[in-house]
Every structure is written in structure tokens, then in C-alpha cells.
Amino acid sequence: MLELETVPEQQWSERVKLMREGATNNGWAARFRAVPVAVRFDPQLAYQSSQRPDPRWSLRQRNKSKAWQGTCAHLANCDIGCDVGAKNTLDKNYLFQAEQHGARIWPRRLVRCITPAGDGYRVQFDEVVDGGFKGDSVSGRIVIVAAGSLGSTELLLRCKQQFRTLPAISDFLGQNWSSNGDFLTPAFHFFRKTLYPGRGITIAGSVDFLEGHPDDLDKPYEKRRKFIIEDGGFPYQVVAGLIGALLRNRGLQVGRRHRFLHAIGKVVGAVYSALHWVSRRRFLRPFRAAFEWLDPINHVMPWFSQGKDAADGRLSLKDGELYLEWPWQYSQDVINGIYGIHKKLAHAAKGVALVLSPITWTAFHSLITPHPLGGCNMGLDPTKGVVDHKGQVFGYRRLYVADGAIVPEALGLNPSKTIAALAERIAEKIIEDHPLATLRS
User: Fold this and answer.
1) Residue 325 DSSP SS3
2) Which end of the chain has less neighbouring CB within 10 Å, N or C?
3) For the chain, how many structural domains are there in total?
4) Same domain for 60 and 190?
5) Which of 204, 199, 177 is nearest to 20 (CA)?
């Protein structure tokens, strides 16, 4: 269903080449590999990062679900979408096929509450209409919650504690949350081919340490630090926002130092946006190459990782908002191990690398987390989890959770295939346990 492919080697970005070089120079060549990604590629396209990507390179084709898609044009907007529809997103496979079989997709709805009703449930939601909310509800005998680690956990917390419509949900709800060890280290490589982090696909190669950190291989497996290193990337248009996000902290105690750093970040982001706006003016086109080389962002390698952290965070409601308590001390060994490998890879690559320790970690012990897991964990019983192995909420028949919220520990690598496999298994179990004829009766 996901139609995974690796990026054709003649389309590798300079960042992937740098990663392979760093791994080889450290004696880790066997750990490097191309990453299977849910993206469509034109195998005939040859691309170098020095080229400005062009959407016209994309070829329109039908996928095996019969949905139209383009092929990757290396526009680097993977993090926020895809201009040419090359990503194998749910609307191109699972949801597309569901619609062909009669499913109705209702966008722009915010689910607020789930309430038992007869032999099923009533789901209350707000529809976003003309900038406001319009309340409505729908009922069904089977309800599947799939709003992600944060969304699913928050919804069930509100049903249990705020609205008290599902009071019997396990008290384990919100526990064992994991950041999946997500960590980003920027390194500047000024004396090699320009890296262009705003061009090419995000995450195309990896260096695998899931068997353990090189210094830990003589330890028992369960005591090793385990993680995977990948090449990051980001759209140029979000750099200003990313700088601000790196320095933002919505914790209850925000000191003067933090406010000062955030103000600096906003100024730097504004200046960067202004310079890029100037460089795009038509009369400056002859100087565009010089602008690109002078832009320090174009020399950044965003070393990115996931690791097996302690998975001991706790999500709760505080003052009406979702709140995270994350005891970073128990995950610092794997995070520090990741940072050490980032530095070794960066320094081993050709050129002089300036590796910046992320201030979010060194000063505030907080992380940016694209792959949160847990909160509605699978468990053997309600004392150890929120759902059973079928994804069904303990104490509530025909109420399911089917997303990353049910993963009970850090995976240490991108979780999309694991989540897809769990969701497909849950779908099979629902069909086995609740034949359609029994639901219609």
C-alpha cells in the first residue's frame, strides 16, 4: 500500500553523499544504506543539488490504487506537503481506496467528545465554517480514534477527566510517552560542494546504529544506546519559523535568558527572510549564484536521528491544555550518544565542519519531536496499558485507537511502517470480531 522506493542514486542530494562519506571515513560504510521512502520517483531523471528544482520535471502517473500522482522533482517541501503530489500520502492510497468503496470523508472537523450511546457511540465535533465553529455529531457502532500520539491521547483524556463520558478508561492513559529520540544537530560545511538543505528529498539515507553505539557493543544488548542517523532537510520558506521554534519554550517557567534568546531568534529569522526576498528580485538575477553561496543556510547539514529513549513521559491536562512532563535525565545517555556520533560523522566528511550543539538540549533539555509515540499504550490489562493487542480500549467494546499513540516504547527509527502494520492488523481484527451482518442487525 505504501509503495516504498529508495531514491535513485543519480538523484542523491549532496547531503546523502556527505553522510556516506562521513560513515566510510569512520569505518562505518556497512552501516550506510538508502532509506525506503513512500515517494514516487522517475528513474530516468538525473539531478544534482546545484540545479534549481523545477516542478515540470514531475511525471503524472496513476499509482496501484489508481490515484493520480506526480514523481519527485526534489522541491524539498516534504516536511509540509508536496507541490507535485509525489508523496504516497493517505489520500493517494488508503483513504482513496476507502472512498472508492463508499466511505465518506468529512474534512475540517474537530472532534470534541465521544459518548456511549446505545450499542455504539456518539461523536461530537465542531465543523470549521467561515472562520467559526458549527457543532454537530455522528453516531456509529464502531469508533476508531486515529489522531496521533498527542491528538488521540488528548481526546481520550478529555473524555475521561473533563467531560467524564468515558470514565472507565485506564488510569494508565497518558503514560509512557516517547519522543522516539528525535534529535537534530546542525553542522556547517563551508569548504565542500554546497549542501542546499532546501533542495532534494528529506531523509534519503541512513547510518544504522540500532544494534548499539560503537562504544557499547561489549555491553548486554538491553543496555546499549540504539539509534539511527539520517539526513535532514527543510523548505527554505520555513527557516524563519524554524529558528523561532528552536528557541521557543511554552513551559510554565520561562526565564529572562530564554526570552532574550527567543527575541534574537525572531530577529535572525526576519533578516533571513528579508535577504531571500531581495535575492529573488529580477534585477538581481545575475547575482543569484553569489547570493546562494553567501547564504550560510545552504552550507548546513541537518544531522537528524531517532533513538530508543526511556519512553517515560506523561501527558495530562493542566489548566485545560495538554501538558507534557518529560524526565529528560533518563534519556540523556542516548541523546548525548547521538550527538557524539553526529560530530564524528560531520568532522570525518570532507571540509571543515562547525558542529553546533543544539541550544534547546544543552540549555533547556527540550527537543523538537516529529515522531511522538505512546500515551494510549498497548498492554496486557488496564493496569499496564490503555488498549489491548487489537487496539480496543479496555472497558469499551468497539472503541479503538489505531495510530502511534498505542506504540508502548520508542522504536529508534521512523515509525510510519510500524504504525501502518499495526493499523492494518487492527482492521483485520475488527472484521473478524464484528462481521458486517452483526452490525447491521
Assistant:
1) strand
2) C
3) 2
4) yes
5) 204
Q: Are residues 302 and 427 in the same domain?
A: no
* Residue 125 near residue 145 (C-beta atoms within 8 A): no
User: Are the beta carbons of 249 and 258 closer than 8 angstroms?
Assistant: yes
- For the chain, 441 residues long, give each residue's pLDDT as a single digit of tens: 999 999 999 999 999 999 999 999 999 999 999 999 999 999 999 999 989 899 999 999 999 999 999 999 999 999 889 999 999 999 999 999 999 999 999 999 999 999 999 999 999 999 999 999 999 999 999 999 999 999 999 999 999 999 999 999 999 999 999 999 999 999 999 888 999 999 999 999 999 999 999 999 999 999 999 999 999 998 877 776 666 665 555 554 556 766 676 676 667 666 666 666 666 667 666 666 666 767 888 999 999 999 999 999 999 999 999 999 999 999 999 999 999 999 999 999 876 778 887 877 888 888 889 999 999 999 999 999 999 999 999 999 999 999 999 999 999 999 999 999 999 999 999 999 999 888 775
**Residue type at 150?**
L
Whether residue 3 lies inside any domain: the answer is no
Give the pTM.
0.89
Burial of 16 (0-12, 13-18, 19+ CB in 10 A): buried
Give the domain extent around 72.
9-89+178-362
215 and 119 in a single domain? The answer is no
Q: Which domain-ending residue is among 306, 333, 362?
A: 362
Are 271 and 354 in a shared domain? Answer: yes
Asked if residue 313 and residue 193 are part of one domain, the reply reads yes
Q: Phi/psi of residue 426, each to 5°?
A: -60, -40
Strands (E), 281-406: 300-307, 314-318, 321-325, 353-355, 399-401
161 and 214 share a domain? no
Helix (H) or strand (E) holding 256: helix 256-279
d(CA 368, CA 251): 14
Q: What b/e readout covers 127-149, taking b as 16+ CB neighbours within 10 angstroms?
A: eeeeeeeeeeeeeeeebbbbbbb
Asked if residue 132 and residue 277 are part of one domain, the reply reads no
CATH number, residue 434: 3.50.50.60
Q: Which of 227, 235, 366 is nearest to 297 (CA)?
A: 235
**Interaxial angle between packed helices 239-247 and 256-279, expressed in degrees from 0 to 180 and rounded to the nearest 10:** 170
